[in-house]
Amino acid sequence: MNILLTVLAVLLVAQTIYLLHYKAQIRDIGNQLHFIMQNGSFKQVNTQLRSREMMTLIRGCNQLLDQQKKADRQYARKNEEINATIVSLSHDIRTPLTALDGYLQLARQAEEFSDKDRYMEQAKSRIGQLSKLIDELFLYTKLQNPEYLIQQEPLDILASLQHNLFAFFDDFSRQGTEPELRLPASSVRVNGNVHALDRVFANILSNYFAHGTGTLSVVCEEEAERVRICFANRLRKGERVDTERVFNRFYKEDASRGVRSSGLGLSIVKSLMENMHGHAEADSEQGMFVIRLIFVKARKE
């Protein structure tokens, strides 16, 4: 009997010590969490106890901490993007406004009607530049709304492509080049929206005239369920393109070169393509810059 009581007493003492240690570990976990929250520490919670329940608790705490750290990094990145956006917007809007003000003052001071007309034409050009920027901002903002959907229908993508190439006829003439086309002889139908396609092609062509050189190559290839259109051109001497960022909003490889661009053109291309369930990608190698558009092929009726 005495032996049994002794064993029970020892077990009770051991259980009490274990519970006190368990309680101390829980208190220590609470202190660790408090320290992490107060100091923004990147350390993780640990414990000396290795029981199944305690390790489950530790893993849960560390998973929550990892998620919070990830959310904090995303918030910081978004905040940096917002600040960069504000800086870029203020620069892009201020530049044509400053030029507009200067030309209007020159027109007001000019004595000859020919000079007044020339300055007013320059002012009109800056107004058009500003209007285009605001239009692209408005479209980009709409495209960022998940609820904004583009109405799609089967259409001939070659007709849209050729229409937009012809719209840049004067630009090709001034540059003294002609696009090199490799297109199917018959029509190619994809699911899309004619207005969205016009904007996609126009933005890519505008990007070519702003940053490219030499002959523009345009190739259309049909696959079983996809249609691929590739635009390829040489980059200007010294020009570099970060293909990982080229579709980012306000991306400009070198803002100091004075190219009149909002930096939204290719970002709009990517957003429009995704809204039409397609895809846009870019590649740069050996001085060549390539944009590939992948469309969903329309089903034959």
TrEMBL record:
A Pfam family matched in the record: HisKA
A cellular component term, taken from the record's GO annotations: plasma membrane
Broadest EC class assigned to this enzyme: transferase
Entry GO MF terms: ATP binding; phosphoprotein phosphatase activity; phosphorelay sensor kinase activity
Compartments in which it is found: Membrane
Biological processes, Gene Ontology terms: cellular response to phosphate starvation
Taxonomic source organism: Saccharibacillus sacchari DSM 19268
EC code(s) of this entry: 2.7.13.3
Domain Histidine kinase: 88-299
Protein name in the entry: histidine kinase
Keywords for the protein's UniProt record, in alphabetical order: ATP-binding, Kinase, Nucleotide-binding, Phosphoprotein, Transferase, Two-component regulatory system
Domain of life per record: Bacteria
